[in-house]
């Protein structure tokens, strides 16, 4: 964790209504590594939430942030991506993991 509260990624989320992405360094909707990077960070947060002994184990605010951003991210992706859109980056980012 990167801070005394041990909330790590949670504190680095951009939760303003004007944002283009959840994290400022991963804000593109067309660069594949930004999209997969965002979901990778949410996965890390979910693991912290679900891991007994973690400082964020069953933390209600962490849960709310994860679920809210999963929903918002899916909706944002659905409304900003179209079949004609150009996505840049590695095809490996789109493989099921």
SSE map:
Elements: H1 32-50, H2 60-80
Helix pairs in contact: 1-2
Number of helices: 2
Q: Using only CA atoms, what is the Rg? A: 14 Å
Helix-strand topology string: HH
Structural class: mainly alpha
| Total domain units | 1
Mean pLDDT over the residues = 78
- Give the biggest beta sheet: none
Tally of strands: 0
Strand fraction equals under 5%
**What overall geometry do the principal axes of the alpha carbons give?**
globular
Helix content: 40-55%
Distance between the termini: 25 Å
Low-confidence stretches: none
Protein architecture, described:
This protein is mainly alpha-helical. It has one domain. The protein contains 2 helices and no strands. Helix 1 runs antiparallel to helix 2. The longest helix has 21 residues, at 60-80. It is globular. The mean pLDDT is 78.
TL;DR?
The protein is mainly α and 97 residues long. It contains 2 helices and no strands.
Structure keywords:
globular; mainly alpha; 97 residues; 2 helices; single chain
């Amino acid at each position: 964790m990167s801070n005394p509260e041990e909330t790590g990624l949670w504190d680095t989320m951009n939760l303003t209504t004007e944002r283009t992405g959840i994290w400022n360094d991963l804000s593109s909707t067309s660069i594949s590594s930004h999209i997969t990077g965002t979901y990778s960070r949410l996965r890390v947060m979910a693991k912290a939430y679900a891991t007994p002994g973690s400082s964020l184990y069953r933390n209600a605010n962490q849960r709310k942030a994860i679920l809210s951003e999963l929903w918002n991210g899916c909706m944002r992706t659905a409304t900003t991506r179209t079949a004609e859109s150009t996505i840049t980056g590695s095809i490996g980012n789109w493989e099921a993991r």
